Amino acid sequence: MNVEEYIASGILELYVAGQLSEDENLEVHGYALKYPEIMKEIEEIEAAVLALGKTVSPGLRHNFEIISDIIDIQKETKVVELGKKDVNWSWYIGWAASLLLAVGLVWMYTQNQDLKKQIQVTETEKQTLEEQITNANTSLEKTQELLNTIRDKNITVIALGGQEVSPDSYAKAYWNKQEQKVFIDAKGLPEPPNGFVYQVWSLKLDPLTPTSIGLLEDFASDQNKVFTMNNPNESEAFGITLEPEGGSESPTLEQLYALGAIAAP
Known about the structure:
single chain; 265 residues; alpha+beta; Immunoglobulin-like; 2 domains; 8-stranded antiparallel beta sheet; 6 helices
C-alpha cells in the first residue's frame, strides 16, 4: 500500500468529518492502527479542525441544523474511535461557520470590486459624452462664425489655387480687414504627413514679402477644416506652404500648396 497516496486522497478528511460509510470507517481505522503515518495524519486533521472551531462563539450552536445541511454531516454515520474522547461537534460547527463567513466576505469583496468597475465605466462614458458635446458645440460655433463672416459686407473672399507640388489642392481665405481676421477654409488640402504642418502666409507682392499669420494645427482632427487667424497686415495675397512641425521663419516655396492674390478694388 502506498501510504502517501492514501493520505493525499482526502479520505482521512472525510473520515474525521464523519462522511464515510461504516465499512469505510473500519477500513481507515484498520490502516491507522497498522500505519503510524496515517494515525498521525488523522490526529493532525482533528487538531486543525478543533483549533478553527475554538475561534467561533459557542452561541452558534443553535445554527447546527443549517450548517450541518451545508457540510452534509450525517448524524447516523458511525466513526470508529481510535481510543480518543468523544468529538465536540460544536467545534466542527464553529469551523463550518468560519468557512461560511470567509466565503461571504469574499463574495462581498467581489461584489464591491464589480460595483467600482461599473462606476468607473459610467464615469468614463460620462466624460466621453461631455467631450463629444463640447466638441459639437465648438464645431457649431465655428460654423456659425464662418457663416456670419461670409455674410459680412466687409468680407473679401480669396480663392487659393493648387500649385506645382499639388495641383489638385485648393483653399479659400475669408478676410475681414476691419476686424483684422482671416478664416482659412482648408478642406481642399491633403492631410499633412507626420512631422509637418501647413503654414499660412500674408504676402506683399512687390517686392515679395511673406509674413506668417499662423499654422493649421490639429489638421487631421479638425472636422470642419476652418481655421481662424489674426491678420493686421496690408495683404496683397495669401499662400499656404507645408513646413516642418512648429513652422518656419520663411516659406519653403518648393512646398507651396495653394496661392491666391487679392483682386484690386
